[in-house]
Design a protein that fits this description.
This protein has 340 residues and is α/β, with parallel strands linked by helices. The protein is built from 16 helices and 13 strands.
Length: 340
Amino acid sequence: MKVTHIVGARPQFIKASSLIRQLPGRLVHTGQHYDKEMSDIFFLELDIPGPDCALRSGSGTHSQQIARMLIGLEKELVFNPPDVVIVYGDTNTTLAGALAASYLNIKIAHVEAGCRSFNNEMVEETNRKVTDHLSTYLFCPTETAIRNLREEGIKGHLVGDIMIDSLKTFGQLADNSYLFDLLKIKPKEYLLLTIHRPINADNPSHLNDIMEALNKTDQTVIFPIHPRTRKHLKTFPKNVKVIKPVSYLDFLALEKNASKILTDSGGIQKEAYLFKVPCITLREETEWPETIGAGWNVLVGSNKDKIIEAIRNFEPTKEPIPLFGDGKAAKRISEILLAR
């Protein structure tokens, strides 16, 4: 069976790294993340081959970016037609890959299908829904995702979360990071912050409110800043240490050893849960409600008072329960595809 994996953003490199080992195929990089810190370093660190085809979709509006991806992906899939195109997550790359394959009548497998935030103003929600309804094979990380698809009249396969596969492979390697000496921080004595969703990164009011809230804490805040966020945020409180995006292993080390994590990322909410680190989500909703129900995640949006309250007082009261599988998602996905 000929397989084409389509990736373009940091989380997709991580997810694909596990499945490519089980199901080798052609790797196409759309160029959605094109900075070295957000792209090249992940191929090296995750020990996956460089892309067979590298597009340069670049930045721009969502429509502009997807349009450029579609042109490049169509050429790639016509010249190197696979039996199945595999797309990951909920980015513009995900949707562009699904659309290009659908137009050419190529079967689509969606890894991380069925996730819903139920906020239709989020681009990612549109990407998820359209991709799921175009896909032939829908690989779901949780029972909640299975139920979401069932309510939309679609059947999914429960395989577990493929991010767990990567964490099991690379989690222990993250213990030797040089960053703690470089940043002069100690485990469990700092907060970790990430911001990249348009609802925050492109909204100066939200960014200012988040920074004002952080200014009210005496804890050190480590902030690997996304290029998108850097464009709109120029000043920071003294306790916020701004650094460039770091490698996958270094970021895992920062996650594992933070006292709390503040983020608007879906993937980081899961990683925080798996590392038993309280998560403060800078959004009004989440595609991972299981982490809320388990008591390890709290939604605060960009509300200053809620952020301050969560930093000071949010503490889980029970041990996390297994929610995202056993780290064998890639094996299950490859078995299902090969059997079909």
